[in-house]
């Protein structure tokens, strides 16, 4: 996709869980080469929205288009193969495995070959290809020197970067990050922001869910605000920050 072109288009998306409306009639567009944040208090429906976008879950009604194509009924693996990768709110690394293996496994599961084949056998050439790809992506996020360290020994900020490296395998055009800055120290947040700016400059579209307003406001191009399952407003960071509904949702004023 070329810069500015819509890569993800959400129209009238609703997701109910029994009587609870976790996402209500949401419209949202993500463009190639932009960083868009979805912010909102806990329980606003941000992770639910992410799950619809990555086909981990499916909407009750409404539509998601990826690169112009409806993803109705798609599975997460097909989304990943088509160029959309995500991370989850809680770090999902295998702590006693090396950083490199953690990334390579992700690369493999994301690729064409299935999980079963990986459990049974992987030919040498395929294994070498995956490890090479994993190392390349670790270098891209600045962790090339730590590839042989146990993943569990890394600081949280580094573990988040490992997850991003894993998501970058197979060269996605869209990256979805669920609360990537949560729990990070200031320095780690700065390193993360720098990486995301670099990925944006390379043309990747980044959609991130965040709780941390300061992190978001200095980084992103646009912000969408969710409260109680609804998108209440959307705009430039400075516009959104001073929006009365946002002040009300965040500060109760
Ligand atoms: P956020 O990520 O903004 O904190 P979530 O999307 O995780 O919010 O949750 C939104 C609402 O949907 C919450 O009330 C949550 O309890 C509910 N919810 C999320 N997933 C499920 C599910 N699988 N089943 C039932 N309720 C759910
Ligand atoms: Mg969440």
Automatic annotation (TrEMBL):
Location(s) in or outside the cell: Cell membrane
Domain named ABC transporter: residues: 8-253
Protein name per its UniProtKB record: Branched-chain amino acid ABC transporter ATP-binding protein/permease
């Amino acid at each position: 996709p070329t810069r500015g072109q819509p890569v993800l288009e959400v129209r009238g998306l609703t997701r109910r869980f029994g009587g609870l409306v976790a996402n209500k009639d949401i419209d949202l567009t993500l463009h190639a080469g932009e960083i868009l944040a979805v912010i909102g208090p806990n329980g606003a429906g941000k992770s639910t929205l992410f799950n619809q976008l990555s086909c981990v879950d499916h909407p009750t009604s409404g539509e998601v288009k990826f690169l112009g194509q409806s993803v109705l009924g798609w599975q997460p693996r097909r989304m990943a193969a088509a160029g959309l990768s995500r991370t989850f709110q809680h770090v999902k690394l295998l702590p006693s495995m090396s950083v490199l293996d953690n990334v390579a496994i992700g690369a493999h599961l994301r690729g064409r070959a299935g999980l079963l084949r990986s459990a049974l056998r992987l030919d040498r050439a395929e294994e070498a290809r995956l490890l090479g790809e994993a190392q390349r992506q670790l270098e891209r996020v600045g962790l090339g020197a730590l590839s042989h360290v146990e993943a569990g020994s890394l600081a949280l900020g580094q573990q988040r970067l490992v997850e991003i490296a894993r998501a970058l395998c197979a060269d996605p055009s869209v990256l979805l990050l669920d609360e990537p800055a949560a729990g990070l120290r200031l320095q780690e947040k700065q390193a993360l922001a720098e990486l995301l700016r670099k990925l944006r400059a390379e043309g990747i579209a980044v959609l991130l869910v965040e709780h941390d307003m300061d992190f978001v406001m200095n980084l992103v191009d646009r912000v969408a605000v969710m409260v109680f399952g609804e998108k209440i407003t959307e705009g430039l960071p400075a516009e959104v920050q001073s929006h009365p509904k946002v002040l009300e949702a965040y500060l109760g004023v």
